[in-house]
Design goal:
306 residues; 6-stranded antiparallel barrel; 6 helices
């Protein structure tokens, strides 16, 4: 086996047994949809996509050895396309969660799914973009996405995106418009924040600005000229009409570098600043516009569920 194949093989070996097949059943216990998921805790909690389980009455989880267990929905965030299932299964592997903030453009990543049970499927690629905001199939904005060229096989949605160490860096999703031949994954950092909200409050309450973003690297000349500590920042690719961002004066092409005097280098760093306590309160956001630093005042509102 060549070195590249061995890296992928070892990474899949490290994470593969945590990946499961998920069946969504209706009230008559007929299967209405399938997808993938993975264990992230030793007490039987799994990550998957909201669209895999949404409006299901019952759920089954098939482990790597073919054993099947019922599961219940612990919570879901339809906007982020993240859901958590709880099952009484035992003798399973828990995925090791990594840090998506450490990802670099061009880094090897691997998408794993279990669409049929018994055996997982694997595709590999590289990170193409970080901190993306895109519209999902239902027209809602999904934030803090990882884009790769590792294609998603049918039924792999909800499975893990892993790095070369076998650590989970994202939750694969297949609901992005125009995503053929590409993989988009919700950052595991954001997924963990969503899980904490769901487990504590039963729903996710978060501030909404109304911007589409992409993480970029700041060139040294700009950093030196403006005396910035940021190495990366968030490029505004779009501002939704009548949104808090639009009312605050944010524009396409602005580069967000700070929020309430806290450096913002990644999308999940920004979303950590948009907790429930910030809703309805003035916040300060610093942006670069035409090689000048501007400070704007924005008032986040609660992001409504789809």
């Amino acid at each position: 086996m060549d070195a590249y194949s061995e890296i992928i093989h070892n990474a899949v070996e490290a994470a593969g047994r945590s990946v499961v097949k998920i069946e969504r059943l209706d009230a008559d216990r007929k299967v209405t949809g399938t997808g993938s998921g993975f264990f992230f805790s030793s007490d039987g909690y799994l990550f998957t996509n909201s669209h895999v389980v949404h409006q299901g009455s019952y759920f089954n989880v098939m482990l790597h050895d073919g054993s099947i267990y019922p599961a219940v929905l612990a919570g879901e965030d339809t906007d982020a396309d993240v859901a958590i299932l709880k099952t009484s299964a035992f003798d399973f592997q828990v995925a090791q969660l990594g840090d998506a903030a450490d990802l670099q453009i061009g880094q090897l990543v691997i998408a794993i799914g279990n669409p049929l049970g018994f055996q997982h499927t694997v595709t590999a690629g590289v990170v193409s973009a970080l901190g993306r905001s895109l519209q999902s199939g239902n027209g809602r904005t999904m934030d803090d996405l990882i884009q790769t060229d590792a294609a998603l096989n049918p039924g792999n949605s909800g499975g893990p995106l892993i790095n070369s160490k076998g650590e989970v860096v994202g939750v694969n999703t297949a609901t992005i418009r125009g995503a053929q031949g590409l993989c988009f994954a919700i950052s595991i950092n954001s997924a963990k924040m969503i899980a904490a909200e769901l487990m504590q409050y039963g729903k996710v309450v978060k501030g909404y600005l109304g911007v589409l973003l992409q993480q970029i690297t700041l060139v040294p000349k700009l950093r030196t000229g403006l005396q910035l500590r940021n190495k990366t920042a968030l490029f505004v690719t779009g501002v939704e009409g009548k949104s808090p961002a639009a009312r605050a004066g944010l524009q396409d092409g602005d580069i967000i570098i700070a929020f309430n005097d806290k450096i913002i280098e990644t999308a999940d760093a920004l979303f950590r600043q948009l907790g429930r306590e910030k809703i309805g309160q003035f916040q300060h956001v610093k942006v670069i516009r035409q090689n000048r630093v501007l400070e704007l005042r924005v008032t986040p509102v609660e992001k409504k569920a789809a």
